[in-house]
Amino acid sequence: MGLGDYKIGAAVPVSDPAKAKEFYEGVLGLSGGQEQGDGGTTYPCADGTEIHPYPSPDNAGKSGATVAFWTVDDVDKVVDDLTSKGVTFEQYDMDPIKTNEKGIAELPDGNKVAWFKDPDGNILAVGT
Question: Hey, what long-range contacts does 3-8 have (CB within 8 A, 24 or more apart)?
Answer without folding.
Answer: 7/48, 7/49, 8/49
